Amino acid sequence: MAMEPGGQALNVMKPILICLYGPESTGKSTLARKMAERYHTEYVPEVAKEMISSNNFTAEDIVRIGRAQTDRILQKAATANRVLFCDTDVITTSIYSEVYLGMAPKILGDFEQEVKFDQYFLFDIDVPWVPDGLRDLGEKRVEMYERFKIELERRKIPYMRVSGSYEDRERKVIQVVDKLLART
Questions:
Q1: Number of structural domains, the chain?
Q2: Are 16 and 77 in contact (CB under 8 A)?
Q3: What DSSP designation does 140 have?
Q4: Can you tell me the mean pLDDT for 14-32?
Q5: What is the value of pTM for the model shown?
Q6: Torsion from C-alpha of 3, 36, 118, 137, nearest 10 degrees
C-alpha cells in the first residue's frame, strides 16, 4: 500500500463503493457500522447528523452537508479495505432539501457526480420507525420510500431492495457484497 506524506496508508486500488440508501429509520446506520466491522474496513456515516441538530436548516446548510458528505466518502475511499459502506449519499441530501425547503441547490448535482457507487441497496420501510431527535417523517414513510425509489429510477441507477427483519437485511447485503468482492 502506498503512503501519504504524513504516513497514512493510501489505498491504491479503488474500493467497491456501497450505498445504503432509503428513508429514515430503516437500519442503514447500524448496518453500515456492522458491515465495516465484518469486512475490516471503513464506513461513512450520515454526515448531516454531525452538522445539524434540528430540521430547521437553510439552503447554505444543505450545500455544506452535501460537500461534507462527498468529501468524507472520497477521504474514506482512500483508506478503505476493498469495500466502503456509505450510510447515505448526496441524492438523499437533495431529497431532504426538497422536502424541508421545497428546493434542492443545483450544486448538489455536481457533488453527486463526484462519487459513483458500485451498488445501491434501497432499504424498505417494513421495520418499526424509531425517533432519534432529527427524524420526524414517520407518518410519511410510504411517500418517502417512493420518492427515494423514483430518484434512483430517474437516474437509471440499478439498486437492490432490502427488506425484512434486520437480520434478513444483513444477510442480503452480505450475500451481495461477498459476490462483488469475489469478482475483484
A1: 1
A2: no
A3: G
A4: 95
A5: 0.89
A6: -130
